[in-house]
Design a protein that fits this description.
Elements lengths: L1 H25 L12 E3 L8 E4 L4 E3 L3 E6 L3 E3 L3 E6 L4 E3 L5 E6 L9 E3 L4 E3 L3 E5 L4 E3 L3 E11 L5 E9 L5 E3 L6 E6 L8 E3 L4 E3 L3 E5 L4 E3 L3 E12 L2 E11 L5 E3 L6 E3 L1 E2 L8 E2 L5 E2 L4 E5 L4 E2 L3 E8 L9 E7 L7 E2 L7 E2 L1 E3 L5 E2 L4 E7 L2 H4 L2 E7 L16 E3 L3 E5 L8 E8 L3 E9 L12 E3 L4 E3 L12 E10 L5 E9 L5 E3 L7 E11 L2 E2 L3 E6 L17 E4 L4 E6 L11 E8 L4 H10 L14 E7 L4 E5 L4 E2 L2 E2 L7 E12 L3 E13 L5 H41 L1
Antiparallel strand pairs: 1-3, 2-4, 4-6, 5-8, 6-7, 8-10, 9-11, 11-13, 12-16, 13-14, 14-15, 16-18, 17-19, 19-21, 20-24, 21-22, 22-23, 25-27, 26-28, 28-30, 29-33, 30-31, 31-32, 34-36, 35-36, 36-39, 37-38, 37-40, 40-41, 42-43, 43-46, 44-45, 44-47, 45-58, 47-48, 47-49, 50-51, 51-54, 52-53, 52-57, ...
């Protein structure tokens, strides 16, 4: 022991002497005595943290220099050497100071790091491990420099560690690395497959189990619950506990081994089948009830999971299903998949719905079943006043393989159900339908409020269709001027039940027509005549049109004194002069021509209403009607003798929801006589006849002259 201490003391004295001697002997030789071609200067510019031992301003050729760094840094290489290529000396490499990380103090102390050092370089991969039965939360980590954060103790730390996941992706380590309790891979039943396939599993790590085809594990998902202390044969030992997830999703202790047992998978024949037990697997000899939805065949049945013989050339047992239709029926092996069939089908595209009926075509697949099928229509929504619909009674037996079913007369715009069923309570087909809309009824309680000058009416109900609006037509006449007529056509919103008359006056009379509108069209019109002086008392409306002067049957003309209808500032509006031949009475002709659309003049047929002129009237004007001028959209055609005419000076105003026509009528007759056109035709005909007679006489004279000459020649000869 004394000898060992003596040797140690000798070494402690000898080592400093040797280092001092080496430094003195191999130091740079300023007197030119350095070995080799020159020396190397100290590389202070490489990194300010870099430190050299020995610390000199220059070094001789073949000198070794030990490197270190200040603070939590380490040199990239531990030594550098001054070397030469024969003409120059230089260092054998460039060194720098690299960042380092220390093992985080908040990690589990049981975590072991390999390699085991105090400091680790940036991006240096370190392997972690724990004692037997435990596993670190990350098996591989590395240090990366990052933003400064606070550790668990609150002190500032600069290093950031990352851990490698199972898919080799590196992620920041947010929590402390701890040694997690693990379980070894369980040695359960033969053929059992574990996913993921590992030798050790962390506590609470979920593992999926599977078996070869035709078999099913008693648990499809398990997880390790850790180790518990147990006494076996008087000895204390740790055993591993596993839990399994049952069919309800709950985790329960696994009482014994997990093994592959023969089970039946839930049949995948037809997604519409309904099972009394909704499970993915069924035990051998377990009976399951199944059925199709209502309206489909076959009827409810029972199936049973049984063990089937191995397929030819295989020794692996397999499972399958057998079926029976009733409790007393024999079990039958299924040779093919089962499916649900429609007993009855409504032929697509044959459904016809009107305002009073519903009709559809049907086909049936099973004749014996179809003999018992019944169809019915029922009022689905209870009706309330004023839309009271009658209940439909009775059913119809659908016999045969195809046919047409029609509901009895129905109410418009009403919801009915069509149901086709198989007694006692199997529904094969059921749908709700709304009959189509029809035109609404005639509006009621149409009256004129003399105090406000407003026309009012009772709102229509939506019994026959959704009311989308009202069509209101108002014809206004003046008692002071029997030739004045105004026609308004208004499209009103369905919520409107009154309309204020413009320029309401006791001297005016009104004819009002009101119709309700649905998507099916306009309903019957409610028509009323109103005299402002006598409230609702109907009065005949007299028409006294203005007359024309200077009527010339021979020229087909007449003179009308026209006054502007529009008042300032609209006095420059364009007026239309409309002419119509009257046949069936003055009233209808005047109203129809005032609000109608005149057609272009056609001389080849009896003239209807046509536009004779377009005028910008600003003052009273004498207008010559029938003088023959024409232009775009008008023709002042000659009047025909023997006809009665009505001429209207019209001012029209149209908008999106309203039309307003103001007219002044003129009435006159053109006495019978030859019209200018007829005189011209007669003269032309007479001239043509005279020319024809002259030509005929010339031809006859020429022929007779030839005959005379021929006769004289024969006599002389």
């Amino acid at each position: 022991m004394a000898l060992r201490e003596l040797v140690l003391a000798f070494l402690l004295v000898l080592i400093p002497l040797l280092l001092a001697w080496k430094q003195k002997d191999i130091g740079p030789r300023r007197d030119g005595g350095a070995r080799g071609p020159g020396g190397c200067k100290a590389p202070y510019s490489w990194n300010p943290r870099l430190q050299f031992f020995p610390n000199q301003s220059s070094y001789a050729w073949n000198d070794f220099v030990q490197l270190s760094c200040a603070g939590d840094y380490v040199p990239s290489v531990p030594w550098i050497k001054c070397i030469s290529n024969g003409t120059h000396t230089f260092w054998n490499g460039i060194a720098t100071c690299e960042e380092t990380c220390q093992r985080p103090g908040w990690w589990d102390t049981r975590v072991q790091m390999s390699p085991a050092r105090i400091n680790y370089k940036k991006d240096e991969e370190v392997t972690l491990s724990c004692n037997n039965g435990f596993q670190p939360s990350f098996t591989h980590v590395k240090c990366v420099r990052g933003a400064q954060t606070f550790n668990y103790s609150g002190s500032l730390r600069r290093e950031v560690w990352q851990g490698r996941k199972s898919n080799d992706a590196w992620i920041p380590i947010e929590k402390s690395i701890v040694c997690i309790e693990t379980c070894q891979r369980p040695h359960w039943g033969h053929g059992l497959q574990l996913t993921p396939d590992e030798e050790n599993y962390k506590k609470n790590e979920e593992v999926m189990l599977s078996c070869p085809m035709g078999f099913q594990p008693t648990f499809t998902h398990v997880k390790c619950e850790g180790k518990v202390l147990s006494i076996s044969n008087g000895k204390h030992e740790f055993i591993e506990l596993w839990n399994g997830r049952d069919s309800r999703g709950d985790w329960i202790p696994i009482p014994s081994l997990v093994e592959c047992i023969e089970k039946c998978q839930k049949p995948q024949w037809e997604p519409r089948f309904i099972f009394d037990q909704e499970r993915e697997t069924f035990n051998p000899n377990e009976v399951v009830k199944m059925k199709c939805p209502e309206g489909y065949w076959p009827a409810p049945m029972e199936i049973k999971c049984v063990k089937l013989d191995p397929k030819e050339g295989s020794k692996i047992p397999r499972s399958g299903w057998i079926v029976r239709h009733g409790t007393g029926d024999p079990w039958v092996t299924l040779e093919q998949n089962l499916t649900c069939l429609d007993v009855l089908q409504v032929v697509p595209g044959t459904l016809e719905i009107s305002s009073t009926s519903i009709k559809l075509n049907w086909t049936c697949r099973l004749l014996d079943t179809c003999k018992q099928i019944w169809a019915k229509c029922r009022l689905e929504e209870s009706s309330l006043p004023p839309c009271e619909a009658e209940e439909i009674k009775g059913e119809e037996n659908l016999y045969g393989l195809k046919g047409t079913f029609t509901c009895p007369p129905l109410q418009p715009f009403t919801v009915y159900s069509v149901t086709i069923s198989l007694p006692p309570n199997t529904i094969l087909y059921t749908r709700l339908f709304r009959t189509k809309e029809t035109v609404p009824d005639k509006p009621e309680n149409l009256w004129l409020d003399q105090s406000t000058g407003s026309i009012r009416w009772k709102a229509l109900s939506s019994c026959k269709g959704e009311i989308i609006g009202y069509q209101l037509n108002i014809t206004t006449r003046s008692a002071q001027d029997g030739g004045f007529l105004q026609v308004e056509r208004l499209r009103l919103n369905s919520s409107v039940t009154e309309h204020r008359l413009q320029e309401h006056s006791p001297s005016r009379s009104y004819v009002v027509s009101l119709q309700g509108l649905t998507a099916a069209g306009a309903g019957a019109a409610s028509l009323r005549d109103f005299q402002s002086s006598s409230s609702d008392t109907p009065q005949p409306l007299g028409i006294s049109c203005r007359s024309a002067r200077d009527i010339s049957p021979s020229q087909g003309t007449a003179v009308l004194l026209l006054h502007p209808i529009a008042r300032p500032p609209a006095a420059d509006r364009e007026h239309q002069l409309i002419v119509a031949a009257v046949h069936d009475g003055l009233g209808p002709a005047v109203e129809g021509a005032c609000s109608g659309e005149p057609q272009p003049f056609n001389a080849s047929r009896q003239p209807g209403a046509y536009v004779a002129a377009l005028l910008n009237l600003t003052a009273p004007t004498d207008f010559l009607l029938g003088e023959g001028t024409r232009g775009p959209g008008y023709h002042n055609a000659a009047l025909r003798p023997g006809c009665n005419y009505t001429a209207l000076l019209r001012l029209a105003h149209r908008s999106h929801q309203a039309e307003k026509f103001s007219c002044v009528c003129y009435s006159f007759s053109v006495d019978a006589g030859q019209s200018p056109g007829l005189q011209r035709g007669t003269i032309i005909g007479l001239v043509l006849l005279l020319v024809f007679l002259l030509l005929s006489a010339g031809v006859l004279w020429f022929v007779l002259s030839k005959k005379r000459k021929s006769a004289q020649q024969n006599l002389n000869g």
